Amino acid sequence: MILFLILITAAVILIIARVYLWAKDRELLRTVTDTRRGTRSERRLVLRLLKKGIPAVTIYHDLYVEKAPDQYSQIDAVVLTKVGIIVIEVKDYSGWIYGRGYHDYWVQSLAYGKEKHRFYNPVLQNDGHIEALRRRLRGIAEVPFYSVILFYGNCRLRDIRDLPDDTYVGYSKEIMSIIRRITRHNPPARYADKRGLIALLQQSAANGENRKIIHRHIKNIHHTTPRYD
Q: Which pLDDT value is given to residue 122?
């Protein structure tokens, strides 16, 4: 009987601890984004950045950058650093992943190569996001951009080659080592108008709460190639 009570007490304490940690994570996430915004992997990325000491004011999640009237480029995450702007694309895949930086499509291989699927090159996809953001920031922040593609899920990056300069592809757990490489090996950037930059990023993040913008973006994706999402 005593052993039973001890086990019950331990289980209750464990449940309370998990609920407490879950609540703390949600509270921390809210310093950057809503707990329902984006995908679960994107939210996990934001939490990891915050827990590793990246200031909340430098992280922007689920941005919709206007690139033309009623046309938007959706960016998973942006991190402002002293050396420039890091633009992050989050991918969630299983299997083996093969790709070249300049190919239009990469390959996902499943079942030991028996099943293969193509998906649009995330390097080119993120380049499109960066170009949209660069155009909007012209005259506000003529700074370097760094492209980061992070893979979540049970996948293995088997043969990723020929990446452009300032482009990084890796697993989600490698994000902090990638950020350190970027910040340690590049000179400080000059932000001409920090207030203008922050205002644009804040507005782009706020666009993701506008249902009309989201519906318009989804409709545009269905009528264009993946290059322009």
A: 98
Q: What value does the mean pLDDT take over residues 193-216?
A: 91
Q: How confident is the model at residue 228 (pLDDT cuts 50, 70, 90)?
A: very low
For residue 113, what is the DSSP state?
G
Bridge partners of 146?
86
Tell me: the pLDDT tens digits for 8-17?
877 788 888 8
Question: Shortest CA distance to 136 belongs to which of 204, 216, 57?
Answer: 204
What tokens appear for 37 in the block? 């915004």
CB 118 within 8 A of CB 106: yes
C-alpha span between 129 and 120 (Å, rounded): 14
Q: What is the phi/psi pair of residue 211, to 5°?
A: -65, -35
Both structure tokens of 217: 């973006």
Token pair for 51: 């827990």
- Return the CA Rg of the chain: 20
**Helix, strand or coil, per DSSP, at residue 154:** coil
Phi and psi, residue 18, nearest 5°: -65, -40
Under 8 Å between Cβ of 226 and 129: no
